[in-house]
Write a structure and sequence with these properties.
This protein is mainly alpha-helical. The protein has one domain. It is built from 13 helices and no strands. The radius of gyration is 19 Å and the shape is globular.
Length: 282
């Protein structure tokens, strides 16, 4: 009963968020997009997105190998894609992170160690995303509180070392790979951003606005990570539509590119899950 209620709440939130976001979409603007000349950008978008997932799976492996030396990338990659599939399509049942933890538990690892490894991986990725976003804020063409932006940018390095200190003191042995996984997280975010830029080219977004759209994309990614919707659908689009008004860019292009990004994610998750089932024999 409680699980069913949670699913219903997530569906309602997703529906309301999508409805509000789509109210910012200008249909006439969509009609003027020459889709036949830009759909070619979908292929590199898919390639860069999956490249980000390959690197992300390798990043997670660095943590898992500290508690399970026998785990290989060949096992972790299909495990990672299966988790992504569960996160997108089974929000009310077993989550992707829970699935990965349970699989590792069957290999003889403890729930505490595998849960910590998965959590630290998530937090590291999120912190690097926020760090990149705070730096990009210095380059947008929209007037913002300059002092606040400079402070947030300068705080990136000490904040990272504070994070490393916390992990070193409370989440050992995962501190051993923090610097390596932080670098991998930057690569992940760059690949995802290039993917999103390709989708912006699909909708003919002006090159001059790409940094603003990058800020919206990262902000949407943070909100989409919150477990309040179904696979983040709706919440990312609403964040980008709202933010587009403040950054003076097209909400239509922001929302459309966001929907395309979700479609790329969904197709990749389905394909990866199908391949993982064959590989894992499930």
């Amino acid at each position: 009963m409680k699980r069913s209620l949670l699913i219903c709440i997530k569906i309602i939130i997703a529906g309301v968020a999508i409805y509000i976001a789509f109210r910012h979409v200008n249909r006439d603007e969509l009609k003027h997009i020459q889709w036949n000349t830009t759909l070619v950008w979908l292929l590199p978008a898919v390639i860069f997105f999956n490249a980000s997932q390959f690197v992300s799976a390798f990043r997670l492996l660095q943590y898992y190998k500290l508690i399970d030396a026998g785990i290989t990338y060949a096992l972790n990659l299909p495990l990672y894609y299966t988790g992504m599939f569960y996160n997108l399509f089974l929000p009310g049942g077993i989550g992707g992170d829970v699935y990965k933890v349970m699989v590792l538990k069957k290999r003889g690892n403890t729930l505490v160690s595998t849960s910590k490894a998965t959590l630290i991986d998530r937090v590291t990725g999120l912190l690097m995303l926020l760090a990149i976003m705070s730096v990009l804020l210095n380059f947008i063409r929209v007037p913002l509180p300059v002092n606040w932006i400079r402070v947030s940018s300068l705080a990136v390095i000490p904040a990272f070392f504070l994070y490393w200190f916390i992990v070193r003191n409370y989440f050992r042995p995962f501190d051993a790979v923090i610097f390596k996984t932080a670098l991998l997280s930057v690569i992940v975010q760059i690949c995802q951003l290039v993917c999103f830029f390709c989708l912006l080219l699909v909708v003919h977004a002006p090159y001059n606005d790409f940094i603003q759209y990058a800020i919206l994309f990262f902000a949407g990614s943070v909100i989409a990570a919150l477990p309040v919707s179904i696979g983040g659908i709706g919440t990312r689009e609403l964040t980008m539509a709202t933010g587009a008004l403040y950054l003076h860019v097209s909400a239509t292009m922001a929302v459309t590119a966001s929907i395309l990004f979700y479609a790329v994610t969904a197709v990749s998750a389905i394909a990866g899950y199908t391949g993982a089932k064959k590989h894992l024999g499930k």
